[in-house]
Design brief:
The chain is α+β, with helices and mostly antiparallel strands and 91 residues long. The chain has three helices and four strands, in the order H-E-E-H-E-E-H. It has a four-stranded antiparallel β-sheet with strand order 1-2-4-3, covered by helices on one side. Helix 2 crosses helix 3. The chain is globular.
């Protein structure tokens, strides 16, 4: 089981993922693309990263927008896995 981060660790980790914000027991970010195809291509890349990390986002897509939420259900909140995936997504 992976450990849940405390508030101080979450605050520090958020500094390393600009654009992501905390919302309750998760972190979230919105992305906007030129069109649906670009948004879907981004989601495909993220899906491959998520599968490799064995850590899957909660997300939605409407036309050119993608909303992503990361949380570690096994930990009951945020863990290092969420921040590692956020960095990979932004990379």
């Amino acid at each position: 089981m992976i450990a849940k981060l405390d508030d101080a660790a979450i605050t520090t980790a958020l500094d390393g993922v600009p654009g992501w914000t905390r919302n309750g027991d998760g972190i979230e970010r919105s992305y906007k693309f030129a069109d649906f195809v670009a948004a879907f291509a981004f989601m495909t890349r993220v899906a491959l990263l998520a599968e490799k990390a064995d850590h899957h986002p909660e997300w939605s897509n409407v036309y050119n927008r993608v909303e992503i939420r990361l949380t570690t259900h096994d930990a009951g909140g945020l863990s290092v896995r969420d921040f590692a995936l956020a960095k990979a997504i932004d990379g």
